[in-house]
Amino acid sequence: MGENLNCVLLISGGLDSTTLLHYLVKKKPYKKVYGITFLYGQKHSREIEYAKWQMDLLGMKHHYIVDLSGIAPLLREGSVLIKGSKDIPHLDTIPIAERIQPPTYVPNRNMIFLSLASAWAESLEISDVFYSAQAQDEYGYWDCTESFVARMNQVFSLNRKHRITVHAPFLNMLKKEILELGYQLGVDYGHTWSCYRGEEKACGNCPTCIERLKAFEDIGQKDPLPYMEKIK
Q1: The domain that contains 38 carries what CATH number?
Q2: Do the beta carbons of residue 118 and residue 130 sit within 8 Å?
């Protein structure tokens, strides 16, 4: 890992991928992190400005934003995160049984993103691709699991000239553990965004807001982002 001192990172501008960016730059041997961010028809792109900010802060000059918004009509019926789909639910309205693959799941998103990130890595003769899958506290996705990563790597091992390895170092970490690591690394979480709704202030009620707020509470810190009053 890191033998050419460069890697590709899926960076959204959220808490997890921002922490991973700082981890790769400050704790790993990578001199250049090539960041890749996707527009896939999501209801807002608030995170992207923060992804740019964090990359600039660390002097990482290679950040590519890929516009895949044309696939939105293909995904709209399968995810509430896509423009024109149903409203984003509050976490407490999602039945426990449905949280193994909640309505905030986007069909095949990580496979699509990792395929394109790996194609970019191969063209740059980079071997390591990172993404910030983590052990969700309240809900989960099949494309954020050890089995998924292992099988993606089995597919990439078929490459006859340039093998790509996907890494997910936060895979078995809870959000609070990622946050603790981030504070050790000096991450400014005021320049990250997690809320699915993308208003001027975070909503505080969607699944990712609930999980984020809980993580800050669990480590005794105050989230620097502004929040709207909780919607009843």
Answers
A1: 3.40.50.620
A2: no
Give the tokens for residue 34.
Answer: 């090539």
* Interatomic CA distance for residues 105 and 72, integer angstroms: 14
- Please give the tally of structural domains in the chain: 1
The answer to whether the beta carbons of residues 60 and 35 sit under 8 Å apart is yes
pTM of the entire structure? 0.94
Residue 204 located in a structural domain? yes
Q: Is 108 helix (H, G, I), strand (E, B) or coil?
A: coil
Domain membership of residue 201 as a residue range: 6-218
Q: Per the domain annotation, does 197 fall within a domain?
A: yes
User: What is the distance between the alpha carbons of residues 209 and 195, in angstroms, rounded to a whole number?
Assistant: 5
**Do residues 104 and 79 make contact, with C-beta atoms less than 8 angstroms apart?**
yes
SS3 category, 154: helix
Q: Is residue 223 part of a domain?
A: no
| Cβ atoms 30, 2 nearer than 8 A | yes
User: Does residue 106 contact residue 79 with C-beta atoms inside 8 Å?
Assistant: yes
For 53-90, what is each residue's pLDDT tens digit? 999 999 999 999 999 999 999 999 999 999 999 998 88
Measuring CA to CA, how many Å separate 52 from each of 12, 48, 62, 149, 198?
Answer: 9, 6, 10, 26, 17
Interatomic CA distance for residues 211 and 183, integer angstroms? 17
In a domain, 228, yes or no: no
Distance of alpha carbon 160 from alpha carbon 150, whole angstroms: 18
Phi, psi angle pair for 7, to nearest 5°: -150, 165
